[in-house]
Amino acid sequence: MKKTTLLSLDGGGIRGIITCIILRYIEEQLQINDKPSAKLGDYFDLVAGSSTGALIAAIILCPDEHRKAKYSIQKGLELYSEKGGDIFQVSFWEKLINPFGLLNEKISQEALEKNLNEFFGNLELKELIKPCLITSYDIENRRAKLFNSWKANLITDNFYVKDVCRATSAAPTYFTPVQIKSMYGQVFSLIDGGMFANNPALCAYAEARKTPFAAVLKNHQKANYPTVNDMIIISIGTGIESKRYSFKKMEKAGKLGWVTPIIDILMSANAETVDYQLCQMFNTLGSRNQKNYYRLNPSLKNASPAMDNVRRSNIENLIQAGLGYIDDNRDVLNQIVQKLIKNKI
């Protein structure tokens, strides 16, 4: 039996550039060591994403005419570097009437929706080439809403990919909540999945446990309902957040003063907690399988931690943060490449 390969991609707005840089190196090595036309979507059995990570997941799982991966990860990198300024743009007038997003959402959703529509068109969730788990949160029913492509053969669970990406990107204070319809016509009121799973790796694990991969992928080299012993999990973050909050400053910050810090802390803390839980889980395994969980999360170095900083200088700093991580972790990344090649079907 071959291992079930899971890819999990954190949220983080424009910081998704870091994810693309790391994935680009992995894809380039697959092309060198396996076949020149290699694309990431053909090497993973399940891809999970929150917010910006979900957008990347959808890009690499887009189908070509042969139901193989259509796009190289370079396509995702181009989308961020070329369209990021358009998506996260705040006009001078909006800054005057809505300073810091205090009166309503900081960024207009129109550019985001326009770019999602142009890229994905009427692609449906069920058409993605592999199982794909995308997170969001239902604010009316107060529960997580998880989109799963292999279950989307049921009309009640099928959506347009552009709508799913809009829902998982609806980060409070940045973009407005969104209402989307399933193909069945049911309406959901949703916000960013990063509110509860900015690092969706544990969600990916839970989903993999109940997925009949041999049946879904039509290949009996993969286990149905794999256990942790059967998995390789690669979890990629969008940069380690190192901003400190002074006790004296926050002691009497009040509700308004806590708006930005609490979102920042929630998103980084839940990512760290998931990493801790998965580390403990894999540490219970034998010495070989212990090494099948990878958390790749670079230091931001000179890049801004803001999710919407699209200055050209910051985009370059994000790229450099990703490249620096590759230089320092080439052996680990090459190890991942070899495991992906060995376990590809």
From TrEMBL:
One of its GO terms (molecular function) is phospholipase activity. GO terms for biological process: lipid catabolic process. A motif (GXGXXG) lies at residues 11-16. Keywords: Hydrolase, Lipid degradation, Lipid metabolism. Pfam families: Patatin (PF01734). A motif (GXSXG) lies at residues 49-53. A motif (DGA/G) lies at residues 192-194. The keyword Transcription does not apply. Gene3D superfamilies: Cytosolic phospholipase A2 catalytic domain. Residues 7-205 form the PNPLA domain. The active site is at S51 (nucleophile), D192 (proton acceptor). Transmembrane segments: none annotated. Signal peptide: none annotated. Belongs to the patatin family. PANTHER family: XYLOSE ISOMERASE. This is Patatin. It comes from Chryseobacterium indoltheticum.
